[in-house]
Amino acid sequence: MLGEDEDWLWDVASEMGQEDGLIWVYGPGEETVMAFTDFGIETLNDLVQIHKDNPGLLKRWIAPE
C-alpha cells in the first residue's frame, strides 16, 4: 500500500506505540498482526519520510542490492 519494502516498514513501524495509532490484532494461538488506525497510517507515513530523509536512523536495516 505504501510502496516500500515490507521488512523496512516493519522496522520503521516497530518504533510506534499505541499512542501513535499502532494496534496489535491477536488471532488463534500465538498469531498476532500489526495493524494501524487512520491516525497510525498518518504517523507511519510521517516516519517513512523521516527515515528516507535520514537513512542512518535504522542502522540495523541493510538495503537489498
Could you please describe the fold and organization of this structure?
By secondary structure, the chain is an alpha+beta fold. It is built from 2 helices and 2 strands; from the N terminus they run H-E-E-H. The chain is globular, with a radius of gyration of 13 Å.
Radius of gyration: 13 Å
Tally of helical segments: 2
* Biggest β-sheet strands, sense, barrel: 2 strands, antiparallel
Give the neighbour order of strands across the main sheet.
1-2
Number of strands: 2
Distance between the termini: 22 Å
Low-confidence stretches: none
Mean pLDDT: 86
Helix content: 25-40%
Strand proportion, as a percent range, falls in 15-25%
List the secondary-structure elements in sequence, H or E: HEEH
Q: Looking at the structure, what is the overall shape?
A: globular
Q: Give me the secondary-structure category.
A: alpha+beta
